[in-house]
Write a structure and sequence with these properties.
Distance between the termini: 35 Å
Order of helices and strands: EEEEHEEHHHEEEEHEEHEHHEEEHHEH
Largest sheet: 8 strands, mixed
Shape: elongated
Helix content: 25-40%
CATH superfamily of the largest domain: Bira Bifunctional Protein, Domain 2
Number of domains: 2
CATH topology of the largest domain: BirA Bifunctional Protein, domain 2
């Protein structure tokens, strides 16, 4: 029989209600402190930390603990004792048994002060730090709240293929892979298949899944593989309807995070997260450029905003409106995907938008062009080979409602929620042009 199998596992958070009871705990050994007659240890599990006390009069237990190293995985048995002088919850565990399930090599390869790259090299250790545990607790709450919003507003979940016979956005940013004597591409987004679902009569769809971008970018906000949150909505009037949906969706999800984790985020990250106020302010692309000119900003491109300009504009608008979020609308067609719908009154502009959160782009969205002939014309205008797009274009040959949607970067949302400086701080395992391990 395994170690005290008849005794169910307890968690540190449950111990205040178990004083005087014998319990079994499972976790990692955070600290070990020897004194003349006693040994004091700190055990950490997903719910917290607790002090363990072992009398050195117990020779057999002492011999087991003599070989124990920091961060070893252990099961322990003991009695919960009230100890008001102990800072960790005013109680401790009087040990009477231990099983070392996984002895950690010593010394550990990293500390909390090690640099980010070393943290990623040894992710199985850095994930144990409380702040990192909180990252993924926040991520779980965030996604659950997003899903509850989607469920309550009539969205269906889809799972689109990640191997494609053609590129989904730009041919310059795709990973090509061998595919039974042919070439396939890793999907940059579920864009084409979201639109197919709308053409198929699924009025509202969402997907949470991986996306791949072969961009040689080395910034703190880019990765070559990331988790994308996507939604598409049929029978819309315009792109402003999409923005209204997104801001309600985000407010719902962020409010859930504040309720579940607000105090822990403040304690471990020093960030006060507040539910956003609706509606978010909006400026057109042309208005944004005019404001930035007045602020003295120099533009690298005529048809897009650079990251420095986005940060400057967001800061300026935040001081003016008190909002952390900012929609920028009506981008030039030359800087947007060919399938973005053009404005009827100004065909050089699209019904597209970006959402900035404290200066970081977290969303790109648009009303899509659903009319077959116009899609053909816009693809031809870009110089695309129509044969390569035939599957996509066929989605619109047999009737498709007006629709639009957006893609949102999950890790970018987490960056802003937690005040992280790099996307790699809030990603389980980073993938960049120079990192493919572990």
């Amino acid at each position: 029989m395994s170690f005290q199998a008849e005794l169910p596992r307890a968690f540190v958070s449950e111990l205040p209600s178990l004083i005087g009871r014998r319990v079994k705990l499972c976790g990692f050994m955070e600290s070990i402190r020897d004194q003349k007659r006693m040994r004091f240890l700190i055990l950490r599990d997903p719910s917290g930390t607790v002090q363990l006390v072992q009398s050195k009069d117990d020779g057999s237990l002492g011999r087991s603990l003599d070989i124990l190293t920091l961060e070893s995985a252990v099961r322990v048995i003991g009695v919960v004792v009230a100890a008001p002088s102990v800072k960790l919850g005013g109680l401790e565990i009087s040990l009477d048994g231990v099983e070392i399930c996984g002895l950690a090599q010593s010394p550990l390869p990293i500390t909390e002060e090690s640099g980010l790259e070393k943290w990623i090299d040894h992710r199985q250790v850095s994930l144990r730090y409380p702040a990192q545990q909180l990252v993924f607790a926040v991520q779980t709450t965030l996604e659950q709240a997003m899903r509850s919003f989607w469920r309550d507003h009539g969205f269906c979940e889809i799972h689109s293929p990640k191997l494609m016979g053609t590129f989904s956005e730009s041919g310059a940013e795709v990973f090509a892979v061998k595919y039974f004597g042919a070439t396939a591409f890793l999907a940059q987004s579920p864009q084409f298949y979201k639109q197919m679902a709308i053409a198929g009569g699924l009025d509202r769809v969402f997907e949470v899944g991986p996306a791949f971008r072969a961009e040689p970018s080395f910034t703190a906000r880019h990765e070559t593989e990331f988790t994308s949150l996507d939604m598409e909505v049929g029978w819309i009037e315009d792109h402003y309807e999409l923005m209204a949906i997104e801001e309600r969706w985000l407010a719902h999800a962020i409010s859930a995070v504040v309720e579940a984790h607000g105090e822990d985020i403040q304690r471990l990250f020093g960030v006060e997260v507040l539910p956003p106020i609706l509606p978010f302010p909006k400026v057109t692309f042309d208005e944004a450029r005019e404001r930035l000119r007045k602020l003295g900003h120099v533009f690298p491109k005529d048809d897009d905003l650079d990251s420095d300009g986005e940060r400057l504009l967001a800061g300026h608008m935040a001081s003016e409106t008190g909002h952390e979020f900012l929609f920028i609308t009506d981008y030039p067609a030359s800087s947007r995907a060919f399938y973005h719908m053009r404005r009827e009154d100004q065909p050089h502009l699209t019904k597209g938008f970006d959402l900035l959160w404290r200066g970081l782009e977290v969303t790109t969205g648009a009303q899509r062009e659903h009319r077959y002939e116009r899609l053909l014309a816009q693809a031809t205008e870009r110089g695309y080979q129509l044969d390569a797009l035939s599957d996509y274009l066929d989605f619109f040959r047999f009737g498709c409602p007006p629709h639009g949607g957006m893609g949102v970067g999950l890790a970018r949302l987490l960056m802003r929620l937690l005040g992280a400086t790099s996307i790699r701080e809030v990603t389980l395992l980073s993938r960049t042009p120079k990192r493919l391990r572990p």
